[in-house]
Amino acid sequence: MRAATLMMAIVICLVPLAGIAWIFVAGSITTVDGLFMSIILLSLSGIFLLNVLWELQDRGLFSFLHKEKVAPGKESSAPKAT
Fold it and tell me: Model pTM?
């Protein structure tokens, strides 16, 4: 179920970008309507991209960003067995 949600969010993230490409191809970016439509489509795409990134973070894909670095000379606070 979550994989389908992730794939749908990726598709819905890319569709507005295709709309922006169409606005550029059609040459209507120079109009106020084309400009505001581009801004709206970029906002939609950004919202769904943020959803995709949060979903990937929940799956642990970005776990390398959250590793704690241990300072040199400092080890874990657990006592050593002798």
Answer: 0.68
Residue 56, CA distances (Å) to 11, 28, 66 in order: 15, 35, 14
* Burial zone of 63 (CB within 10 Å; 0-12 exposed, 13-18 middle, 19+ buried): exposed
Please indicate, yes or no, if residue 36 is contained in any of the structural domains.
yes
Contact in structure between 58 and 19 (CB atoms under 8 Å): no
Q: What single-letter amino acid sits at 36?
A: F
Give how far Cα 77 sits from Cα of 56, 61, 71, 81, 82, Å: 32, 28, 13, 12, 15
Residue 52 covered by a domain = yes
Per-residue pLDDT of the chain (82 residues; tens, 9 = 90+): 678 888 998 999 999 999 999 999 998 888 999 999 999 999 999 999 999 998 888 888 777 776 666 566 666 666 666 6
Q: Domain tally for the chain? A: 1
Tokens of 58: 């929940």
